[in-house]
Amino acid sequence: MKAVAVESVKACSVNPIDVKVRAKVYDDFPDYYNYVPGDDYQILGYDGAGVVEAVGDDVKDFKSGDEVYYAGSPIRHGSNAELQLVDSLSIARKPTNLSFVQTACLPLTWITAYEALVERMQVKVGEQAAVLIINGAGGVGSVASQIARHVLKLPVVITTTSRQETTDFSKQMGATHTVNHREIPAQIVKLDLAVPLKYIFLTHSTANYLPVATKVCAPFGKICSIVQTKDFPQYGTEMMAKSITFVWELLGTKPWYKTDVESHGKMLEELRQLVEKGVVKCHHTQTFPLTAKGLRDAHEMVESGGSIGKNGLSVDDPAAHGQAFA
Amino acid sequence: MKAVAVESVKACSVNPIDVKVRAKVYDDFPDYYNYVPGDDYQILGYDGAGVVEAVGDDVKDFKSGDEVYYAGSPIRHGSNAELQLVDSLSIARKPTNLSFVQTACLPLTWITAYEALVERMQVKVGEQAAVLIINGAGGVGSVASQIARHVLKLPVVITTTSRQETTDFSKQMGATHTVNHREIPAQIVKLDLAVPLKYIFLTHSTANYLPVATKVCAPFGKICSIVQTKDFPQYGTEMMAKSITFVWELLGTKPWYKTDVESHGKMLEELRQLVEKGVVKCHHTQTFPLTAKGLRDAHEMVESGGSIGKNGLSVDDPAAHGQAFA
Questions:
Q1: What positions does the domain Enoyl reductase (ER) occupy (chains A, B) (predicted)?
Q2: What is residue A85's DSSP assignment?
Q3: B57 — contact with chain A (CB < 8 Å)?
Q4: Is B245–A120 a contact, with Cβ atoms under 8 angstroms apart?
Q5: Which residues does A284 contact at the CB level (< 8 Å), separation at least 6?
Q6: pLDDT under 50: residue ranges of chain B
Q7: Which residues make Cβ contacts (< 8 Å) with residue A169, sequence separation at least 6?
Q8: Which of B219, B229, B257 sits opposite A234 (nearest CB)?
């Protein structure tokens, strides 16, 4: 049985998906959110980092005592717990130069952004094209910017931001240009880009941003979203006129359909190396204690919409961790 | 100036797009349909076949007297005329083993289906995957089936049909399996396919078929449509759950945005060779006279929805052409 038990989860993080699953925000979401086969409840939490307690007989790559991290799975219990069972194919060793709480902030956002850019939109390394990332200072937006700039080496990575603080953060995270989220078409025209804007990644409010995305997208461009919406308007958009591709990215598709789950472990192993080499920075900004109260506070923070980067939770004293970005 | 004048259009065909442009069916279609820069009217007609009368100074590939065919362009006047000006990059020599009217039935459907399968969904030659084509006996559906089976060599090409006549025709056109359009999920489950159903091509009623397409589509599959719809329902579909790609195919995108127009000429040249080798069959089924009355009759036939394959119009005596498929 390809599973590995993690002794004492050392840290986790809270993502918008945690809040949505807890609050059952999705009116008509795939059944598998909040669904662990055989149980009538689900322990919340996706991202986690901890120490391996024991491994299944078939597991060769990990052993008791290894420090690991993972994005979790919608069909297993989550990381808001002392012990957690995870699929060994979906985990990797923790970067040595990050704390547990910093590490726990990375996997779900990284895998989501990586799948969106590399697998769904199939952006090529060194492609002479621009990408626009909606909500550059958000959790997924800030790792997507780094993947676009430092892994895929795109010449132009535009993000949307709203105030000086988020603009500064997004530029640290890889944005070559930022535009105000309310003035996207006009400000992008002003940039007078030398390469076509072929890729647009919606990490926030699909319904609001889809029409404007079709306006600025190049013909035959691709738009990817991770935020559910009830329907897509087509009239009044240029989706058909430009033969645009729209694609959903959902981290849960692989674990639910049992397809290529090992790619999650591989992506996190690649991420470990990139972090250790200093190519990728952690977007952790704030630490809460990993307690019932800390989880409530972190959920409230995410629900407020004002977060920059990622909020982590740690079993250790939060004061000992500081901030990844001061 | 890269243009070539065609002396006396010898034949044309009527496609659903001709009917929609004439009847202004599209409530909110791209401005460029029915739009010839500088003129306040547009001569109807896309597909055409005829003889070159004269060429522009820059044109090297064609000369007066050449027999050619083409899909036309939304920003030029159409083929329902005696003389027509076309872009030399978008034309090719007529297959020697087809009549003008048979030839004129091919280009718009072929380019649309080719762009949909090869460029938009990026199906690979010999891929171990299945494709589902909605409306297998239609103009685009019947060439798409041939591209999928004989050019891309997919092992499984499923089409939807409704009656014995359309089922027989679709099988002649490359379908390896047919299913009734009202019983798609159940009949596809029964096929017990050995390869994943990764590609779905909607050539009819996007609004009706999108939800059922998401049910039968494999995770990470792709759905392409050529039929405009006001909006896409997302709730109640499995588009997000399966991280499905949706992409529009519109032949007019290249000529309107002046992008890669020469690909249309190249596709038709490849098609000429495939037709002459007998790999691809013409889907022409019926001939009308190329007169005002003949055009009205052909438009009525297409509007009725009962067409099989393609209806062509010829300046010669229709009785002399017979049917490509008896």
A1: 3-313
A2: E
A3: no
A4: yes
A5: A13, A101, A102, A105, A106, A309, A310, A311, A312, A323, A324
A6: 1, 320-326
A7: A136, A137, A142, A161, A308, A309, A325
A8: B229
- By Cβ distance, the residue of B230, B241, B254 closest to A234 is B230
Place of tokens 């920075």: A281
Report how far residue B316's alpha carbon sits from residue B101's, in angstroms, rounded to the nearest whole number: 9
Give the max Cα distance, chain A. 59
Q: Using alpha carbons, select from A174, A119, A164 the residue that is nearest to residue A142.
A: A174
Output the DSSP codes for B45-62.
---EEEEEEEE-TT--S-
Classify B305 in phi/psi space as left (phi over 0), alpha (psi -120 to 50) or beta. left
Phi first, then psi: what are they for B83, rounded to 5°?
A: -125, 150
Other CB atoms within 10 A of residue B187 CB:
17
Question: Over the stretch A8-35, which tens digit does the pLDDT of each residue have?
Answer: 899 999 998 888 888 776 555 555 555 6
Under 8 Å between Cβ of B178 and B167: yes
B134 and B204 Cβ atoms separated by less than 8 Å = yes
**A139/A16 Cα distance (integer angstroms):** 9
How many separate helices (H) and strands (E) can be counted in chain B? 10, 14
Q: B21 CB contacts (<8 Å, ≥6 apart)? A: B33, B34, B42, B44
Which of A98, A100, A72 is CA-nearest to residue A84?
Answer: A72
Q: Under a CB-based contact definition with an 8 Å cutoff, are residues A75 and B241 in contact?
A: no
Kindly report, residue by residue over A120-172, the tens digit of the pLDDT.
Answer: 999 999 999 999 999 999 999 999 999 999 999 999 999 999 999 999 999 99
The pLDDT assigned to A25 comes to 62
Distance from CA of B292 to the nearest CA of A (A): 30
**Residue A274, φ and ψ in degrees, nearest 5:** -65, -40
Asked if residue B66 lies in contact with residue B52, where contact means CB atoms within 8 angstroms, the answer is yes
> Residue B228 and residue B207: Cα distance in Å, rounded?
9
The answer to whether A231 contacts B236, with C-beta atoms less than 8 Å apart, is no
Contact call for residues B6 and B84 (beta carbons, < 8 A):
yes
Q: Which distant-in-sequence residues (6+ apart) come within 8 Å of A184 by Cβ?
A: A132, A160, A209, A212, A216
The residues near B206 (Cβ < 8 Å, ≥ 6 apart) are: B225, B227, B228, B229, B232
Rounded distance between C-alpha atoms, residue B204 and residue B259, angstroms: 26
DSSP strand pairing (B231-233 vs B130-134) = unpaired
Cβ contacts (< 8 Å) between A230 and chain B: which residues? 233-235
- Hey, what amino acid is at B73? S
E strand segments, chain B: 3-14, 48-55, 67-70, 84-87, 91-93, 130-134, 156-161, 177-180, 197-202, 222-225, 231-233, 245-248, 284-289, 310-314
How does pLDDT run across B55-91, given as a tens digit for each residue? Answer: 998 898 999 999 999 999 888 899 999 999 999 999 9
Strand order in the sheet with A245-248: A177-180, A156-161, A130-134, A197-202, A222-225, A245-248, B245-248, B222-225, B197-202, B130-134, B156-161, B177-180
DSSP conformation class of B272? H
Among the partner residues B228, B234, B238, nearest to A231 by beta-carbon distance: B234
Tell me which chain B residue has its CA closest to the CA of residue A246: B246
Which pLDDT score, from 0 to 100, does residue B74 have? 85
Crossing angle for the helix pair A139-146 and A107-114, nearest 10 degrees?
60
Q: How confident is the model at residue A323 (pLDDT cuts 50, 70, 90)?
A: very low
Res A231: pLDDT = 82
The full set of domains in chain B, from first to last, is 3-106+262-320 (3.90.180.10), 109-248 (3.40.50.720)
Q: Could you say which DSSP state residue B135 is in?
A: S
CB contact under 8 A, A253 and B229: no
